[in-house]
Design goal:
19 helices; five-stranded mixed β-sheet; Alpha-Beta Plaits; Methane Monooxygenase Hydroxylase, Chain G, domain 1; Hypothetical protein af1432; alpha+beta
């Protein structure tokens, strides 16, 4: 048997070890590729979601987020695999010598590594195409091709930044197609979609290249008008001119195709009407979250006037409309009588004025604050509009479970008022007091109330005031479950709970105003 030199055996053994290491690396790389393919297969269903109708836009956005993340992971993995393969190839080439015994095996390993690189290069190319497609779905409406709500937000931020930099104005035009649901119901969604596409095309042709036309959702569109004048009045005039141009562009009739059965189609002439709301804004970044809400509100003013018109957002009109809606909401589905609210306001007026005269709360009450508390009183139970009718109007005693639901009206009321405050900054101080009342009028001085178990002065003062008026009126009023109490008995019940349920200082004010409470109750009966 021929003798093999020791150094040759050592070289062959070392080469075999390197080959095994490379083989293991290739195995790991192929496993990574397989893992990527499995990962991508998991986004097939979300990708299908992106083909849903516009009514499911939120689901489509979430699906596109998943797809974007998956494709970016695939790209990152492919880059890493190619990088690792390149390093392995360089290292392998450095070990190859012309007379190496294992040169053939090393070349085979190099060929395998090159295949890995080619395969991942194809993956990168495919994922790049897919990434572009998914990004298109993520930021554009699949039906009309317009920017969607997500891209609109980005464009709005750009407008604000440009205004700040160049001292200019922009405008948001919010439009809603009038009676679009009727068209859908009568002729089907395919006809509705055809109209939406036609509207999108007309809007795009009616604005400047610097402007953005976006589909907000359903039959709502937003047009951002950028680079308007630095003078507010001039910018408003520019925006009004473009808005009226858009309105005129949508007025001519559309020829829409209606499918009668699988084989026949017919056409209808349909005149589209729309309501437009416009808000002009500058470079104030703090107003970004309100701009579209303001334009939307102005659009509803236009719609309430019969549609086919343009209305501009006006802060004063918005304040009046907001208060009107809140007061209407507060009395909607109310278990109390309208006179309950009137009595409550008069009790509160008497109590706050007496507390101010007695200087019980220095710095916390003045004539302006008292007036706000007076006006906010009727909103104290606004959260009851969120309580199920069956619970709110139940004649018998509530069960423990129903009572837990009923108690949520305090937090519900605060949420309604917080939302109104976000949309109308001019009402901030008034609504802050209304929120204190909604959240605080069922707390108790001893901490045994709800929703937060606040005690003593931690309970908002406005909430402590309303608590006394509310309990007094509940006691002297007839309910399905009880007869009305006499004034003397109701007063005694409140006084006996001083320092327990009620603020002791306010009870002192009540004692001095008890005659006025009696007169109010007698003069304003149910």
């Amino acid at each position: 048997m021929p003798h093999t030199p020791t150094n040759q055996v050592s070289t062959e053994t070392s080469s075999n070890i390197r080959l095994k290491d490379i083989a293991q690396s290739i195995h790991l790389l192929n496993s990574a590729i397989k893992a990527d393919q499995e990962f991508l297969s998991g986004i097939a269903t979300p990708l299908e979601l992106m083909q849903l109708r516009a009514e499911n836009a939120e689901a489509a956005l979430k699906a596109s987020d998943i797809a974007l993340k998956a494709l970016k992971v695939l790209q990152a993995n492919s880059y890493e695999i190619i990088k690792a393969s390149d390093i392995a190839i360089v290292a392998m080439k450095a070990t190859i010598r012309a007379n190496d015994v294992d040169a053939h095996h090393k070349q085979m390993a190099l060929d395998e590594l090159n295949k890995v690189i080619e395969k991942n290069a194809d993956n990168l190319k495919a994922s790049a195409y897919a990434l572009n497609a998914v990004q298109e779905l993520a930021f554009n409406d699949p039906l009309t091709g317009l920017p969607n709500r997500r891209l609109l937000k980005d464009r709005l931020q750009q407008c604000i930044a440009n205004n700040k930099r160049w001292d200019t104005h922009s405008a948001a035009v919010f439009l809603d197609l009038d009676k679009f649901k009727t068209l859908n119901d009568q002729f089907g969604h395919e006809v509705g979609d055809e109209l939406l596409i036609a509207v999108a095309n007309r809007l795009k042709l009616s604005v400047r290249e610097t402007d953005t036309v976006a589909r907000f959702g359903g039959d709502e569109f937003v047009v951002l008008l950028d680079q308007l004048s630095g003078n507010f009045s001039d910018a408003r005039a520019e925006a009004e001119g473009i808005a009226n141009k858009l309105l005129s562009a949508l007025t001519p009739t559309h020829e829409l195709h209606v499918r009668r059965d699988h084989h026949t189609h017919t056409t209808i002439q349909y005149q589209n009407l729309a309501s437009f709301g416009v808000v002009v804004f500058d470079g104030d970044e703090s107003k970004e979250k309100n701009i579209l809400d303001w334009a939307d509100e102005a659009m509803y003013w236009a719609k309430n006037e019969g549609g086919r018109t343009v209305r501009f957002y006006d802060a004063m009109a918005s304040t009046e409309q907001t208060l009107k809606r809140l007061y209407e909401l507060a009395t909607e589905n109310d278990i109390e009588t309208a006179n309950h609210g009137i009595r409550m306001q008069q009790y509160v007026k008497a109590l706050t004025n007496r507390a101010l005269q007695m200087n019980l709360f220095p710095g916390e009450l003045n004539h302006q604050i008292n007036d706000r508390i007076f006006k906010a009183t009727q909103l104290h139970d606004i959260g009851k509009t969120k309580i199920p009718y069956s619970i709110l109007h139940k004649q018998a005693k509530l069960t423990d479970e129903e009572w837990l639901v009923m108690k949520t009206h305090t937090n519900c009321g605060a949420e309604i008022l917080e939302d109104a405050k976000r949309q109308n900054e001019s009402l901030t101080e008034f609504l802050d007091i209304a929120i204190d009342i909604a959240i605080g009028h069922h707390e108790r001085w001893d901490g045994d109330g709800y929703p937060h178990g606040l005690a003593g002065n931690a309970i908002p003062l406005a909430g402590r005031i309303i608590a006394i008026a509310d309990v007094y009126d509940a006691l002297i009023s007839k309910r399905s479950y009880k007869e009305p109490w006499r004034h003397e008995d109701a007063l005694a019940a409140l006084v006996s709970n001083s320092g327990k349920h009620f603020d002791p200082l306010l009870i002192q004010a009540l004692i001095r105003e008890e005659k006025n409470f009696r007169l109010i109750a007698e003069a304003i009966k149910d």
